[in-house]
Design a protein that fits this description.
Elements: E1 2-6, E2 9-12, H1 19-32, H2 52-60
Antiparallel strand pairs: 1-2
This protein binds zinc ion.
């Protein structure tokens, strides 16, 4: 039952089902929200206890929402550069 709904938020109650259905719904919702991710990271100085690769990997995993994400395309689908460089159609 949906109790709240607007353009970027929905609150609903899922009843009388098991965790696999809830997990499937969660995965579909995550897949359908257009997000962008950090792909290239240059660390100029790191005085933390974490190494550069770990920090870069953690940053890669953060899904970023953006209004331009809806109009972007996958790098593999770019006809302009064949997805092998930074291109205005799939990078910001
Ligand atoms: Zn391109």
């Amino acid at each position: 039952m949906i109790s709240e709904l607007n353009d970027d938020y929905v609150k609903f109650e899922l009843c009388d089902t098991d965790a696999s259905i809830a997990n499937a719904l969660c995965r579909v919702m995550i897949a359908e929200v257009p997000t962008i991710a950090i792909d290239l990271i240059e660390i100029k100085g790191n005085s933390s206890v974490l190494n550069d690769e770990l920090i870069a990997h953690r940053l890669d995993l953060i899904p970023l929402t953006s209004e331009c994400a809806m109009s972007m395309q996958f790098s593999r689908d770019c006809d302009t550069c064949d997805g092998d460089g930074q291109c205005e159609f799939y990078s910001v």
